[in-house]
Amino acid sequence: MSVLAPSRPPVESRPRTARRGVVAVVALLVLLLLVSLASLMWGVRDVSASDVLDALLSPVTGDNDHAVVRTERVPRTLIGLVGGAALGVAGALMQGVTRNPIADPGLLGLNSGASLAVIVAIAGFHVTSVDGYVWFAFLGAAIAAVVVYGAASMGWEGVTPVKLALVGAAVTATTTSLITVVLLTDRNTLREFRFWQVGSLANRSADSLTSVLPFVVVGLLLALAAGRVLNALALGDDVARGLGQDVTRGRLLVVLAVVLLCGSAVSLVGPIAFVGLVVPHVARALVGPDYRWIVVLSVLIGPLLLLAADVVGRLVVAGELEAGLVVAVIGAPVLLGLVRGSRSVAA
Amino acid sequence: MSAVLAAHAVAGEGLRSTRLRRRTRRSLVTLGLLLAAVALCVAALMLGDYPLTAREVVRALLGLDDGPAQIVVFDFRLPRVALGVLVGVAFGLAGALFQSVLRNPLASPDVIGVSQGASAGAVGALLLGGVTGFWVSVAAFAGGAAVGLLLYAVAWRGGMTGHRFVLSGIGVAYVCTSVVGYLLTRSEVQEAQAALLWMTGSVAQADWAMVTILAVLVAVLLPPVLLVARGLDLLLLGDEQAAGLGLRPEVTRGLVIALGVALACAATAAAGPVAFVALIAAPVARRLLGDGSLALVQSALVGVVLVTGADLVAQHVLPSLLPVEFSVPVGVVTGAIGGPYLIWLMAAGRTRTS
Question: Which of A95, A149, A164, A166 would best serve as a mutation to test chain B binding (most B beta carbons within 10 A)?
Answer without folding.
Answer: A166
